[in-house]
Structures are given as C-alpha cells and as structure tokens.
Predict the 3D structure of the following.
Amino acid sequence: MKIERIILNEERNVTLTAYVPDISDEMPNMKIRPAVLVFPGGAYKFCSDREAEPVAFEFMAKGYNVFILRYSLNEHSVFPTPLNDAVQALNLIRKKSVVWCTDPAKIAVCGFSAGGHLAAAVSTMSEVKPDACILGYPCILQEIGDVLANPVPSLNEFVTDKTPPTFIVSAADDGLVPVKHSLEYAKALGENDVSYEMHIFSRGGHGFSTSTSVVSSGEHLEFVKNTRIWIEMCLVWLEDVFKD
C-alpha cells in the first residue's frame, strides 16, 4: 500500500494523507477505485485520531482509496479557511487521480462533528463539490458556535439541487451536537430534491465513530454498540450512489 503525506499549508499545518492499496492482477475490479476524503471532528480545535485512520480502514477494506485531511484549526479556522483546505484537497485528488488510481467522478467526503460541518460546507458552499457526502453527527447550524473554535455558517441555508447525494447518521441522545442539526439539514436536502438517507439511533451519544473497541472501551463501547451497523449501511448506500 502506498501511504503519502502531502503538506498543503505548512504555516497552518494542513496535510493530506493518501492511503492507496497496491494494484494487483488478482483483483482486476480494483485497478481504478472510488475514494473517500475523510474530515475528522474536533470542534475545529483538533483533528480526532478516532475519526481518522479507524474510519479509513473501514472504507479501504471495501475497495476504496482513502484520503485524510487535517485542516486549519483554532485561530486559523475562521471561515472560509477550512473550506479552502477541503477544496484544495478535493482538487488535488482529482488532479492526481491517475497516479492514485482513483476515479475522479466517484469521490465522497466523510466528516464527523465539526468535520461534518466541513463536509457539508464543501458540498454546498463550494463550486467544486464531491460526488457524495457522508455526515456523522454533523455540526450544521450557526447556533453551535459556542462549542467550536470560531463561528460558522448554517449550512442548511446553502443547500441547492447541486448538493451531492448525502448519507447522515446521528444519535437522538447526542448531548453535544443536538440531532436537530441533522434533521434541519435533511429537511433542506428534501426541499431541494437532493437524494439522501438518514439513520437516527436512539442511543449512541456523540463521537461514536466506528463504534468498535478500537475507538471505544468499557461502558462507552457497550453504550454505542447499537450504532455499529451504520458503516455497513453507508457502504450499501455509497455503492448504489456510485453504480455505473
């Protein structure tokens, strides 16, 4: 497997890490792969490791190339700077699609919490958009600003019929980012005739990531075990979105 780390902005410590499995004649269907660009959460204050490589490995196991963006944080996270990072990363993946054996028309973004805000932002506010969007317990509304490093725009207000198909997963008992954020975004998608699938789990709290022992332990692992199926459901959805 090729692992390549690219510095997109040294001053702001913005990096893109590519995970591209080797090409093998034994797997002829995997010579050109779809891709997932992951935005970890962390309130625009840090990028959570729990929502980075553990998520990447889930998608890689199913035949996706994966890219992890560690975007602008803290004093550098004033909008639209993180959005510019995301656009830069998306453009680079498409530019190097031949080198990275990636289908430039089958690139999904996948973001969690604040990373979900960024994934929704590049899906709505940018002229350059991904081909699909996956949102895990996303921050969407401006009212969440007190939790984040800097104020953010309400992204439900930017949804149009150009917004890509979207998969949303959240928990009704999320005490940090209320499920209202997911519901308002889904409402905007529906009003603009954008295809979407949403799963709201009764329990799971905030930050359940892959809901495995890799990212959770003890009582928390028991608490979120009912959310483990979201990845399989997402993969089925994504396969349908990317079907030829």
Notes: The CA atoms of residues 179 and 236 lie 23 Å apart. The two ends are 26 Å apart (CA to CA). The longest helix spans residues 81-95.
